Amino acid sequence: MSCIEGLVRERPAHGEVRLKQALGTFLIGGMVRGYLPQTWTIMTDAEALTVRADTQGNIRVSKGTSEARDGEVRIAHDLLANGIKGGQRPPPGSYRVTFYSQKGKAAFEYLRSSFGL
What we know:
Elements: H1 3-23, H2 26-33, E1 38-43, E2 48-53, E3 59-63, E4 71-75, H3 77-86, E5 95-99, H4 102-111
Parallel strand pairs: 1-4
Antiparallel strand pairs: 1-2, 2-3, 4-5
Helix pairs in contact: 1-2, 1-3
C-alpha cells in the first residue's frame, strides 16, 4: 500500500459513520441522499486513487482513476500527506480541483477539511 493510499483509507471509516447517521434521519437524510452516489479521483505525482460513496453510505477507496466521476483533485504528494497527517492546509493555488457535477462541488465544500484541503 502506498503512502497516500494508507492515509486516505483512514478517512472513510469516520466519514462512513457520519454519512450513515445523516442518511438515517428523515429531513437531512433526504437532502444528503440527493448528493449520492459520489465518485472522486485524487491524483498526486506518485499515485492515483478513487473514493466512492454509495447511496447506502458506504465509502470505498481503490487504486487508479475512474472515468465517471463527480470531481478530481490534483495535488503534490507531500502537500496532501502533510494536509492529512498534520492538518497543514496547502497554500492557495498549490492544488487543482475539477468538478464534473454540481453535486460534486457541493460535496467537496462540505468534505474538503477531511482531506486537509
